């Protein structure tokens, strides 16, 4: 097991310990000598989030409650079995989603009472502006997805839900509103149904859509993994933002980093980076003002990098890293340290860094987000 020793300093751990967690976090147990200062914690594991178990699925969250640095986003990871439905609902905040596995049918109405219904699958995105009512149903084999709300205190559990509203509205008001006899309301649920089992429809979307109902002209979904990636020797990147998904106010990158490769030293100017690791093992050092901290990440971990804080992501495992980088900004932007130094006057770089011409010649004026030695 890793022991906290380096260059004659430190000692072994003789008290209680968690070997599995320590093996996942070697650079926390023995931090690089370049780490210094104090930073707020930038890491959370979905395995530490409370599971809300429902009839037909589950949900768990990462908000500022779990990770105080998650100021821009409240996140929910949700699973729906085949046929299971997330109750009809809407939110105070915009909802951005990435489908991790399976297929899901989304339905609702857009602004102007324009209907939408679509089947989406692994690697697809959806975006619902605030207040847009919608529902979700797992299709064949069920589905799992990541939901992002553009407020760190936002929660899927705080949604405005159809069943909750009707359960807490007087029956005579419901009778007047829907113009039905009170007998039709006898079996309304007494409380919210967050996730519930239902029959999987065998009808196509065309058959489901009612005649004469106007459909939205806005595109609420985007096929991120169907995009042609930006390829380089160390991996590949796909970006979805307002330039190719116009409705969204959230930008994202789907990143693949090959073993041994490095997501180069860079920073993002507009917003904090909220990242989720889907596969692989990473080493990340975050450079803040007068402090640096190194972390290790594995599949199921969440990382926060505050805006303008320099960082890199190194693949230290034997399999590719697959990850999502998500920003509360309509446009994806980043600054490359390599590119900045390459286009700067050489003297401005050589004098403070005390480097020679060999270093200057190695700099890359292009932009290579993922690098190999």
From TrEMBL:
Sample GO molecular function, one term: metal ion binding
Q: Which CDD domains match?
A: cupin_OxDC_C, cupin_OxDC_N
Q: How is the cofactor bound?
A: Binds 2 manganese ions per subunit.
Which Pfam families does this chain map to?
Cupin_1
Q: Which residues does the entry assign to the active site, renumbered to this chain? A: 325
Q: Name one GO biological process term.
A: oxalate metabolic process
Q: Which residues form the Cupin type-1 domain?
A: 54-186, 222-361
User: Which cofactors are reported in the record for this sequence?
Assistant: Mn(2+)
- Region annotation (Disordered) ranges: 1-33
Keywords for this entry? Manganese, Metal-binding
Give binding positions for Mn(2+) 1.
89, 91, 95, 134
Binding locations of Mn(2+) 2: 266, 268, 273, 311
Mind telling me what this protein is named?
Answer: Bicupin oxalate decarboxylase/oxidase
